[in-house]
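Batch job 17 of 40 flagged for manual review because the log was empty.
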Amino acid sequence: MFVGDIFGSAGRHIVREHLPHLLETHSVDLLIVNGENAAGGFGITPSIAEDLFDLGAHVITTGNHIWDKREIFEYMNVPSDSHARGRRILRPANYAVTTPGFGVYEGVLADGQAYAVFNLQGRVFMSSCDDPFRKADELLSKIKAKVILLDVHAEATSEKVALGWYLDGRVTAVLGTHTHIPTADERLLPQGTAYQTDVGMSGPYDSVIGVERELVLQRFLTGMPGKFEPAKANPKLCATLIECDGATGRACRIQRIMLGE
């Protein structure tokens, strides 16, 4: 199960409310969450990361807001072979190699199933980073696990779709984040990769992608800058559930989930 961008306190609340019964009902073996907006809509803190790990997350992925809270730097800056929880929070792998943390995590579940998760950021309409297509090739040449999930944090739907086709049959799932709007295009690609352009936001839906409506409207209407505040109304959890063959990594089922209070 992959939980889409957790946005602010409303997102954390709705995830805490639903996650335990979702994990039990669907017999989830592996839980990945995107937490880059979990701290007030901008970044993530070590304490929030710890809370998400306590809820059952095996890996936390992020994106372009990962550096918004400086206290996360040290939390993520651990040795590659560290067993600290900070090793399991990822920043996009196609960032500069000098940035703190790692872009890929390889682990083993209690039943012995190996898995890998990696995080990439798109380049279209986003800040400069390395080519996500070639970085995926580089990482996959080293990953030994069969079950592999990619969180592609990107703005352009075309870039996400292209990555899905490029990696079909080479990873278990390509799931998009960042735009905070769940897309209804979940599907199994011909070679066995589960795909969805954007999982959606776990946060307040009576908002503009998580932010108070009035503040965003004022920006559009006047062009004047202003401080954005996270909204709280009508929180929903958005997630994607994938079933796959652990021996081959091929996905056989994908399902969208959206739950309100």
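Reviewer: the log was empty due to a logging misconfiguration, but the result itself is present. Helices lie at 8-25, 46-54, 72-76, 132-140, 157-167, 213-222. Unflagging and moving on to job 18.
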